Fold each of these.
Amino acid sequence: MKIGIVTDSTSDLPAYLVEEHQIQVVPTILVLEGKEYSDGIGITREEFYTRLPSFQTPPTTAAPSIGDFTAPYETLLSQGCDHIISIHSASQLTTIVNVARQAANEFPDKVTCIDSGSLSLGLGFQVLAAAEESEYGLQSVLNAIVSTRKRLQVTAALDTMEYLKRSGRVPGAVATLGGLLSIKPMIELIDGEVKPIGAVRTTSQADERILSLLLKQGELQRLAIMHTNAELRAKKLLDEMMSRVRQSVPRDILFVNVTAVIGTHLGPNGIGFAAVKNNL
């Protein structure tokens, strides 16, 4: 059985991995001052984050259309795929997977849509696991996704609560952290929910807390250091981890400036990680 893999651009997978595994990536939509951009086209991530604090109208995001999904489904099936796994961002935070499911209805029994319960490389690592198992059949792919999700940790330190509050997608438990916008909220993403794990007052405290949480993960199968245009902080995090870690680390550690479609809701100058443990 030949399995095709589809995801959306919030997976943040580097282009070389997308190409290597022949993954179809559907761009999500960024709306800046009334103009729509396909994710990654027309404005770079660096430019977006630099301009983000000064936009007169707060940016918004939108899911791709049904047609944006039917096109890659048709392409993969025409190329001889027997089945398609279409895996997307957490349904609690976006409608992307629901739109994919509507598109999948046009291909009965040919497309399985999966809610990853995550974002960025938390989604991307599930997509990658699926792609690596695709030659072994549908059940192997599904098992790989479930296994990866069980071993996944996604944690971040944001520079401010402002953008989460503005997005309207912040749950009450997180909002309680934001009495003062000057705090640095610590959050994790579990089964599609943004959960607070504390707050600190300074950037240096946030960096040390993230490092501590990362070092506690133990031996890792996969690791991504993620940031929202905070490259120097993220590099320092990686360097500090490598100098202190006492166990083996993944050979290919990803270093990613998070897509603007996610960064719209997180704000600039944040750092975090997505890690897949070797074992539960």
Note: The radius of gyration is 18 Å.
Amino acid sequence: MSIANAFLQLHKNSNLNAVEIVKLDFKTFHTQGMVKIDKHFFLSAVEVLEKTQTYAETDAIEDFSITRTAGKGRGWLFKFSERGNLISKLELTHGDAYHPGGIDFDGKNIWVPVGEYRPNSKSNIYKIDPQKMTADLFFSVDDHIGNMVYNPMTDYFHGSSWGGRRLYRWKLDENGRKISESWHKNPSHYIDYQDCHYAGMGAMLCGGVQTYQTPIGEFSLGGLELIDISADKVKILHQIPITKYLSDGIVLSHNPFWAEVLNGKLKLYFMPERNGHADLHTFDIELVN
């Protein structure tokens, strides 16, 4: 059963059964994207050395103005075991581009976007060999790209801008040269996409979070969305909220997640970060055959 088929069985009252929490033996910094390959996990993260400063505001989707300083930092890809032991790490920093986003695995390579830590900026897209932990710069984009997915059914790459507002699609040749690039507005607005993965059936599964202000304080809403990426414009197929929180109110889908179907269950992995460290939280959901 594909991830997409499994996800379509879920609803707002689906019971996420807690399986375990694995403590990691290294500092993760601000976690961004995650994939699982066999018995190993790969995690992208940003180490902030100097925070950005916002000097202007704009929500105009057609406006590509820079509204923040660049700040300083380092981008990382970590490889670790199922028991949380660090195996190796790879730095993916190039000047002001030090913010890795959500990542995905196409069966051979891991794809990692690394952008400047500000909207409407620039990003480099890396192809990672997960065995050798080596990176090749594949192509670049004149925008902040927060996640990257490859659709093997169409041979297109997909990504989204800061907060998932612009949904991009690229056709590339074997050397990473752009044959075409297009984007359109995301029809979904209630969460910012943080991490996305190809889920089969010509669809990608995206997770994210959005913080809302209420009269009694902030409220973080998490969610997962299944999105049809088989046509020119995307279509939202299915959505569920994520309503499980850490003790301090951080929602599980605050950045990285991974999903797999195993032994008749949909397994979901989350790594919400606080104070520069994250643990691996595993849940499962019984599926109907």
Note: The chain has a mean pLDDT of 95.
Amino acid sequence: MEYTLIATCAFGIEKILSNELKALGYDDLHVENGKVEFYGDEMDIAICNIHLRTAERVLIKLAEFRAESFEELFQGTKAVDFGKIIPVSGKMHVTGKSVRSKLYSVPDCQSIVKKAVVESMKRTYDREQFAETGAVFKIEIGLLKDLATLTLDTSGEGLHRRGYREHSGKAPLKETLAAALVLISGYDGNRPLIDPFCGSGTILIEAAMIAKNMAPNMERNFVCETWPSFPKDIFPQVREGARSQIKDIKFPITGYDIDTYVLSTAKMNAKKAGVFKHIYFLPSDYMKHRFTEKDVTIITNPPYGERLLEDEHVRKLMEKMGRDKAVHEDYEMYILTALEGFEKTFGKKAHKNRKLYNGRIQTYLYQYFAEKKKEADV
């Protein structure tokens, strides 16, 4: 059956997500803030859940309608034939969000939608009550400027939960954002990669999976696999296909950090992700570190600094990074930071910068190209 599907993502990486979908063979994409709409069937649901690196969830779009009153919300929801979607024993879990809409009370909207879903189910099953003891069907009501969108979540836990990161540092970077940084850099495993502030290793692990062409979510499960109506052979087929596409890495990937405990967690995470043999994790104080490698890509999320003394320390780190770039013109640097006045501290204006959100923190990805790459691009 063909559906309208929605792959959601963090603000600022919609283009990266749409590029991923195009690479998987999808066209007729509709890109909006925080999401990309496209068309697909059950096989496509499995492919996207397993292969997309920057998507947060894959949703089925059920309906879209104007709702300026609770009655309009109720009737618009009730019009959907939920009996064709949810089995009689299905557990109906409703979530919601509202932005610049007359119906601003999310709990009230969730309650109205749940009642409407039950009324729709009554039509199909000719009964008054439902035990809700079976598989979970997570329905979301999203309201934006009085436009209501009903969706059904096929992913379950967010797609950033790859399953490898049981341990993380003080300020972990989401796996999906880390993958986005790597994809923005164009890194494909054909040159050395370094993260001098690697923390729990997320950027390096995502980079290794990209270099190995390893699907990010092939070892985890998804809520739609529990649905009685979802074909049982599809996900095993897609996982088998994904495993057959894995290749080896030619160039070294290295992570440095001053915190040896965090490095030990990075090693555990890399082992669980299946990429440990490809990544070197080494202790190093960046202020004393001297780079000797040639033609390197650096992708990093340095410490932000929340207090005055920390902020001053971060500035010294970034000043040194600027000096390192001046010495190593063949290096590419991609630095995600919330530090104000970063380019002045670094000592050079970035060739490009991009606004991204690390959770709720507004950051910028400053991109410094190798001199030969800059000249080639011109």
Note: The two ends are 47 Å apart (CA to CA).
